[in-house]
Design goal:
By secondary structure, the chain is an alpha/beta fold. Helix content is about 40%, strand content about 15%. The chain contains 15 helices and twelve strands. Strand 5, helix 8 and strand 6 form a beta-alpha-beta unit. Helix 1 packs antiparallel against helix 3 and helix 1 runs antiparallel to helix 11. The chain is globular. The structure holds pyridoxal-5'-phosphate (PLP). The site of pyridoxal-5'-phosphate (PLP) has 17 residues, from helix 4 and helix 5.
């Protein structure tokens, strides 16, 4: 399917029914699989034959959907996880352990920042956070002898910075480590990080990929391009025998295209069990079928709303990468030629109080912590997620008191603008 365009893969990738089989991906709600002999099953446990043994490790429905996403990203292998958090955790923990170090962009999702800076730190993994606009010297200085990967988000949630994937990939490769890119906000329709040098791509499929605010999920895709065997001392888990799997060496047995994902399933999914439900994978698959069509609408709606906000005198600032006034406009043109997602942030004159009044008077845009689904929603961090902070602390966190995050959905753009216009008119 690789030679097809993304719209075709989104609909037909991952599953091709044979004569008389169901057209739609079947949901295999089965925890376990039946075998005729113990020897047949033994081969599975030794990773010597293909097949399913237990749905904590792998399930046919989940595999078909993972395969579709691998094709959409242009990767060689993929796995689904129960959430985006699990995907980012596994992608790093698969190649880094106690005593290792990771270089990460500082403008990443708050949940990922907490995972890295608090929870994984407690596991003995050290992180250096770099400004995505840092100089080449600053970036170079962030690497240490024990650095195992570089991490960033294509479009950061919620900062909306655009990550210079090519630049960070070069820096990572110069230091003999892979670049991991969280492509959640861009989706493979907006940007395919592997084409710009990323080695591993992760997703919270909870957002645009599933797209309807129905299920939590995640995904990890391997490009198959990073040559772990060039640095066996850095990546012993991939290049030396795994005693918990009868001495299999993942790079030897599964090649560069399969080693990373096979190890991640065989060790991390086996031991940590962040398994998606086949039912959730099915809903994700339905979402993926329409993703290219939905993506266009999210982007065109958001651009119209962003242009309206920028022209409104009650609005003090607008952050949307596709506006020519934006600091990331050039990077967005390069990496996100089809648009830069549906999320906008902006400030209203009158600060925190005006923002609260504005939000109370919206009727179509609902107040939610979620983003990136078909329904337009918004959040005022200063009065909700960040309400314990005073104005000074908010500024330091990059979340000014007047900041409103708006996730533009699939409704009619004129209706959304009328709703915003009405709420603005309620501010005294
Ligand atoms: C939401 C999100 C996550 C976490 O995903 P969950 O599915 O909520 O666990 C990770 N990265 C980014 C960029 C996100 O937006």
């Amino acid at each position: 399917m690789k030679e097809h365009q993304i719209e075709t893969i989104a609909v037909q990738g991952g599953y091709t029914p044979k004569n008389g089989e169901p057209r739609q991906v079947p949901i295999y709600m089965s925890t376990t699989y039946k075998y005729d002999t113990s020897a047949d099953m033994g081969k599975l446990f030794d990773l010597e034959s293909d097949g399913y043994m237990y749905s904590r490790l792998a399930n046919p429905t989940c595999d078909m959907v993972a395969k579709k996403i691998a094709q959409m990203e242009g990767g060689t292998a993929a796995m689904l996880t129960s959430s985006g958090q699990a995907a980012n955790f596994f992608s790093v923990f698969n190649i880094a352990g106690c005593g290792d170090h990771i270089v990460s962009s500082s403008t990443i999702y708050g949940g990922t920042f907490n995972l890295f800076a608090v929870t994984m730190k407690r596991m003995g993994i050290d992180f250096t956070f770099v400004d995505p606009n840092c100089s080449d010297e600053e970036l170079k200085a962030a690497f240490k002898p024990n650095t195992k990967a570089v991490f960033g988000e294509t479009i950061a949630n919620p900062a909306l910075t655009v990550f210079d994937i090519e630049r960070f990939a070069k820096a990572a490769h110069n230091h003999g480590v892979p670049l991991i890119v969280d492509n959640t906000f861009a989706t493979p329709v907006g940007c395919r990080p592997i084409e710009w040098g990323a080695d591993i791509v992760t997703h919270s499929t909870t957002k645009y990929m599933e797209g309807h605010a129905a299920t939590i999920g995640g995904c990890i895709v391997d490009s198959g391009k990073f040559d772990w065997t060039k640095y066996p001392e850095k990546f012993p888990g991939l290049c030396t025998p795994d005693e918990s799997y009868h001495g299999v060496t993942y790079t030897e047995r599964f090649g560069l295209g399969g080693a990373f994902i096979t190890k991640c399933v065989a060790q991390l999914m086996r031991d940590l069990g962040a398994t998606p439900s086949p039912q959730s994978a099915f809903l994700l698959s339905l979402g993926l079928e329409s993703l290219p069509v939905r993506w266009e609408r999210h982007c065109s709606n958001a651009l119209k709303v962003a242009q309206f906000l920028e022209a409104n005198e009650q609005v003090s600032w607008v952050n949307y990468p596709n506006l020519p006034s934006n600091a990331y406009y050039e990077l967005a043109k390069k990496y996100l030629p089809k648009g830069s997602c549906g999320v906008i942030s902006f400030g209203i004159k009158g600060g925190r109080a005006a923002a609260e009044t504005f939000m109370e008077h919206l009727s179509l845009a609902s107040i939610e912590t979620h983003v990136a689904d078909s329904h337009t929603c918004c959040l005022h961090p200063a009065s909700s997620t960040h309400r314990q902070m005073n104005d000074e602390q908010l500024m330091a966190a990059g979340v000014p008191g007047d900041l409103i995050r708006l996730s533009v959905g699939l409704e009619n753009a004129d209706d959304l603008i009328a709703d915003i216009q009405n709420a603005l008119s309620q501010i005294q």
